[in-house]
Amino acid sequence: MTSMDDPIRFAKDAKQDAQFERSAGNFAEAEVILGEAIDALEERRTQLQEDELGGERARKLAAALCDCYGSLGGVRRSARRFPESVEAYDKGYQLERDPVNAIVDSYNLTQRLVARILTEPTAMLKCDPTEVSGELIPTALNQASQTVEGQIAGPRKRDPWAFADLALLDTLLSDTSNPFETRGPWAKLKDLGPPGYVFSSTSAVVQDCLQRLREVDATPAEEDKRAALVERLEATKAWLERAASDS
Fold first, then answer.
1. Fewest CB within 10 A of the end CB: N or C in the chain?
2. Does 71 lie in the same domain as 177?
3. pTM score of the predicted model
4. What percent of the chain has pLDDT over 90?
5. Residue 181, class by beta-carbon neighbours within 10 Å (0-12 exposed, 13-18 middle, 19+ buried)?
6. Angle between helical axes of 160-173 and 139-153 (0-180°, round to 10)
7. Would you call 192 exposed, middle or buried from its count of C-beta atoms within 10 A (0-12, 13-18, 19+)?
8. How far is it, in rounded angstroms, from Cα 76 to Cα 61?
9. Domain count of the chain?
10. Which of 72, 56, 100 is nearest to 14 (CA)?
C-alpha cells in the first residue's frame, strides 16, 4: 500500500512507527515518518471535490491530520525543540477548532499551551499574564480548561483523555496543595479505570514541565511561586506513577 492508496491508514501506521522511534530516542526518524504521513494527508485533502468539503471523508482526513500534527508536536517536545513543538501543535489545533471538521478533542488545545510553558517557563511565575507565541499565559490555560469542561459536559463525559487534559490544566493553574480531592478531575479520571498509558503519558508531560521549571532562573519574587508549582507537579507525577502501576 502506498501513501495515496489510503492516506488515513498510512497515517495511522506512521503514527505507530513514529512512536516506536520516539521511544527509542530516534527523534529525527520519527519526524521524517510523520512528515510523510502529513504530506500524504494534505495532498489528498487538496484533491477533494467542492461537494466533498465538509463531508465525512473530509472530516476523517482532517482528524487524521490533526492527530499527526499532535504526534509531531510530541516528538519535537521529546527532542526539546519547544518552539517547533508549538508550531506543530498549533497546526493541529487549527484543525481541531474548525467546526467544519467536527473534531471534539483537546489534545492539541492543551499541548500547544504546555509547549509554550516549556518554551518560556517563567511565564507561569509572573504576576501578570505573559505573552508566549501569541498566547497569554496563564490566561489561555483558563480558557482551555473551560473548553474541556464543556466537552466533558457533552460528548466526552466518559473520555479519560478529556479528564487528563482538564486535570493537567487545573493543576498548572491551581494554588491548592491537594489537587487530588475526591471531586476533582484526577479522581474522576481514575474512577473511569483507563489503561495505564493514559497515566504514564500524562506523567511524561508533567516531568517535562518539572524539568524546565528547575532549569530556569527565577527572581526572588518568583521563587515562592516556582517552589509551590514544583511541589504540586511533583505530587502529581507521583500520583500518576502510582495510578499507572495500579492500572
1. N
2. no
3. 0.93
4. 86
5. exposed
6. 150
7. middle
8. 23
9. 2
10. 72
Mean pLDDT of the residues in the chain: 93
- Of 32, 123, 117, 126, the closest CA to residue 77 belongs to 117
Give the distance, in angstroms, between the CA of residue 44 and the centroid of all CA atoms in the same chain: 25
pLDDT in tens, 100-148: 999 999 999 999 999 999 999 999 999 899 999 999 999 999 999 999 9
pLDDT attached to residue 27: 98
**What residues make up the domain containing 25?**
1-103
Residue where a domain stops, chosen among 103, 123, 147: 103
Contact 73, 82 (CB under 8 A): no
Give 3-state DSSP helix, strand, coil % of the chain, rounded to 5.
75, 0, 25
User: Model confidence over 191-208: pLDDT tens digits?
Assistant: 999 999 999 999 999 999
- Asked if residue 158 and residue 245 are part of one domain, the reply reads yes
Domain-located, residue 108? no
Give yes or no: residues 117 and 232 share one domain.
yes
Statement: residue 178 has pLDDT above 70 = no
Indicate if 99 and 128 belong to the same structural domain. Answer: no
Domain match, 65 and 120 both? no
